Amino acid sequence: MLRQLWRLSRTFEVDGVRMSAPAIYAEKHGAGWRAERARETGYEGVACVDDAARLAVVLLRAYEEHGLRWALDWAELNLEFVLYLQQADGNFANFILDWRGVPNLDGPTSRPGKTPWLSRALWALATAYRVTGNPRYYDRYHSALKLVPEGVDHADILAVILLSALQMHAAGSEPAMLDLVVDVCGRILAYERDGVLLNYPTETTPHLWGFLQPAALCLAARALDRPDWVEPARVTARRCLEPVVRDRFRGPRTLPFEVSCTVSNLDALHVVTGDPVCAKLAAQARLWFYGRNPAEQPVYDQERGMVFDGIDGEVINQNSGAESNIEGALALFEELPWREYRLTS
Question: CATH classification of 48-93+113-339 is 1.50.10.10, yes or no?
Answer without folding.
Answer: yes
